[in-house]
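Deliverable D5.2: sample structural annotation.
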Amino acid sequence: MTPRSSFRVDRHRLVVRALLLVMSGALSMSLAAQTFSGASEAPARSCVVPQGIPDRGMPDRDAALPLDIQADDMQAPGDAPMRFAGNVRFSRGDQLLKTDELLYDRSSGEVLLPGWLEYSDAVIRMEAANARYDTGASSGRFEQVRYFIAGAAGAGNASTVEMLDPEHARVAGFDFTTCELDDPAWQLKAADVKLDFERNVGTARNARLEFQGVPILYLPWLSFPLNDERKSGFLYPQFGSSSDNGIDLAIPYYWNIAPNRDATFTPRLIGDRGVLLGTEFRYLGRRQAGTVEFDYLPDDREADRDRWLGRIRYQAALSPGWTTRFNFNRVNDQDHFLDLGDELESSSIQFLRSDLSLSGRGRNWQLQATFDTFQVLDRDVLERNEPYDRLPRIEFDGDWPLIGDLRLRFDSEVVYFDRDFGVTGVRVDTLPELALRVVRPGGYFEPSVGLRATAWSLDDAGDVDGSPARVQPVVAIDTGLVFERPAGDRFQQTLEPRAFYLYVPQRNQDELPVFDTRELTFSFAQLFQTNRFSGADRQADANQLTLALTSRLLENASGRSLLDASIGQIFLFEDSETQLPGIASESRSLSATVGEINWHPTDRFLATAGLQWDPEDNETDVAAFGLRWKGSDARQFQVGYRFRRDRVDQVDIRARYPLTSELNLIGRFGYSFEDETTLEALAGIEYESCCWAIRASVRNFVNDRDQGKRTAFFVELHLKGLGSLGRSPYRLFSR
């Protein structure tokens, strides 16, 4: 007999609901642990999900859904308990309960499952040896429970699960792991877990984390959320060691103040210096968000002074099209990042910028007002070379269509420059421009003519004119063609010649001030710019023609470029006389020849190269080479080379090599040929199983501007699905 009926007795639904409450609580404890995972690069391998564990789906819990009961045999003899036997199945929405026998006493409301049972839904699958449930008191007991998280390797056990009432449950002998359940390398265990579904809070006593059977973390009491809400508590510790600071141990504490506000307090023990307290406060509103950070180290034993760092980030949407941002950065001494930072880049920080901006935009225009100041950290920067504060800088740009392909463009800027040393004052710069852009299949033609006008009002100008001005027309013609031809059945090759003519008459600018102007680094993109200087204090005179050629190999199916190469050069009809103070003008007829090539045949391989060759000096000005390769296994290799004549000559090599399927060697080597010194050397080892990984590395790197070096040791234990203990140095490979 296989009756199929739509039993809608509320008490029967309580059985399914009880199981849901119990297992959602057990699951919440395991997911709560995953919430605090470390920020290290997650390993790719994962354990095999046991058969019968479905992918995670969407819960279907509509109250109007019927409860469907199937069984080979159903008996309801008078006042005796109802008995369902043989392939018993209770289903409702995504929920399914299976067992061999179920007894239901209608008079007492007691449900008895004397043998095994299996429950599954969109989130979890659970097995138990037996169960008893009282529908009247909404209480019950489940023994020898084993659960599996859908779509993941997470699983665990519980010796007993007790439903005390509809809103409270208790779990004894709880554990969780993402390893093979029968022989786990690590487990999160708790002797006693109480679940409060009314408050969505769980508490565990005698919780511990075991790795290879050895307890590595013990908490006598632990509280965690039963839903997606964040909860206050300690995060995983971070630790490392360095030659100049000694042991470095940080234990963050997270404070969930409100759904839109939180804070993190991080006591950090730096062995040779003292205890630093790091604080971070975050808030998020409908139209605004911000972060406040403050690190304080009292009485640094090495520096013999207090040390602090303050940061504020704020942004707000004032109205449609209008936003404001505030960015504040300050330290109380110039060596803060050199002493307390842990990255090679820390030694290259020369200035800390703070700024406040207001931005607005419309259909054809945009406006930005910025106030920014700089804190100088580099002692080698002379007072006359310190950056100016801009109080404020106002920019207005527009681009309006006129008739047909004719457009009016307008770029403008007003800045007040302030500094304790040297000339200060206001600069106004405008560039109205008429441009005609004609685009047709196979090519384009864009002539433009503009008039750049710049004026200054100077304070403390001394013997020079306090109100200088400069007016220069800027005439440019940009045109290009695109030729295509098939390259076999799968590819298309292009040939794209381009010409760019620029004329700007010469003006004497020797007496003009220099507030924020620098000569731009010459590159392929610079071949097509109207000014070789940043900032408005200098406008380069020009009478020149750029000729360039680009060719690409495109994949027909995806349009992806597999190979592209470009070469270009500027032909100078007149010498450019405009220079910055102290730099002599050059007489030459040709610029450096610039070439670039990018080869990307597969997603696993990329090679790039660039070269600037000066034909008049017969020397290389700039050279760069990069290669990235990633094998089908853990093999990975990356090399970069940079050269700039008389300034930079560096190589950077990074590699990962697998000794076995689980054990990898990693390394990085950076060397400066110009300075004849090693910039960075890193050697390490990684072990990765399907559910845990460990990384250990030793790193020696330059950490100050005088080529001083630091040796640091890092170790990180990553328990997949749970989090990381220790500190990973950084992401070794760029994406």
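Annotation notes: Confidence is low (pLDDT under 50) at residues 1-43. Residues 10-35 form the longest helix (26 residues).
The annotation will be released with the project's public dataset once the embargo ends.
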